[in-house]
Design a protein that fits this description.
Length: 268
């Protein structure tokens, strides 16, 4: 099913890749089933939400960064899609130095681990994993079907940097506790030599959510998430932040413009 639908944007000190893993339907069972818009009929999957999955890869002068890790699905060669897409972008998964997690819902955290010989192990063994501490505790408790506890059990011996609230991870990389989509969701602001990238996770998942103002049922606090999108859109438009859209079906890397009281998003 390998659809190397990755895009690249080069901006001086950073190279940005959208590592598209394709489209999926998900219903009340929380199972993600591949969906091909060219051949599959949405009517055959009633009461389903249709999403696209785009992890991201950023190469800086100092790091190779993954932002959220996809579903953890494999291709026909028994290799993780995210690993193959990283190779297609010209890098080795072993070279990843930072994994920045907006939150740990399964469609964002499945690729944190890989199954080998019947055992789960970290997908990026040499990387530091940046996770909100209380989000980790929520996932490890395994009380919600949105989280797969076995992922976090297998990751416990990895290099994890637990953060709380908002702060600076290192010069040029800030994390901000946002808490709209789920209680301990965070977003990342990456700024290097004047180039600016915002990864909004599931609080800015698609360009359409800036263009159309609405409260989404899948957000824990839909009103707060809607207000955050408005804030992010204004900041992106006024200050020139390039936005990374994890669930975009059209273009995953975009620039935001302000048109009166409305936003316009164009491919970067």
């Amino acid at each position: 099913m390998l659809d190397t639908n990755y895009l690249i944007l080069k901006i001086y000190t950073m190279e940005i890749f959208a590592l598209g893993e394709g489209s999926y339907s998900v219903d009340a069972t929380k199972k993600f089933i591949p969906f091909n818009p060219q051949t599959d009929n949405p009517k055959d999957r009633p009461a389903s939400l249709f999403i696209h999955v785009n992890p991201f890869l950023i190469k800086t002068n100092h790091d190779l960064i993954v932002l959220d890790t996809g579903l953890g699905f494999k291709d026909t060669r028994d290799e993780l899609l995210i690993h193959q897409n990283i190779r297609n972008a010209g890098f080795d998964p072993e070279e990843v130095t930072l994994v920045l997690m907006s939150h740990l819902h399964y469609d964002h955290s499945g690729g944190l681990v890989v199954e080998r010989n019947g055992k789960l192990e970290p997908s990026f063994p040499h990387a530091q994993h940046v996770i909100q501490r209380q989000e980790w505790e929520t996932g490890l408790a395994g009380k919600s079907s949105s989280y797969h506890k076995e992922i976090f059990e297998a990751l416990q011996n990895a290099n994890i940097i637990f953060v709380e609230g908002s702060g600076e991870l290192q010069p040029g990389i800030r994390y901000e506790h946002s808490g709209g989509h789920c209680p301990y969701h965070q977003v990342f602001w990456i700024e290097m030599e004047g180039e600016k990238v915002l990864f909004g996770g599931d609080e800015l998942p698609e360009p359409e959510q800036l263009i159309r103002k609405f409260i989404a049922k899948y957000d824990m606090d839909g009103r707060k998430a809607m207000q955050l999108r408005e804030e992010y859109g204004k900041k992106a438009a006024e200050e020139g932040w390039t936005c990374l859209f994890y669930h975009s079906k059209s273009y995953a890397i975009g620039n935001v413009l302000r048109d009166g009281d409305h936003f316009k998003v164009t491919p970067a």
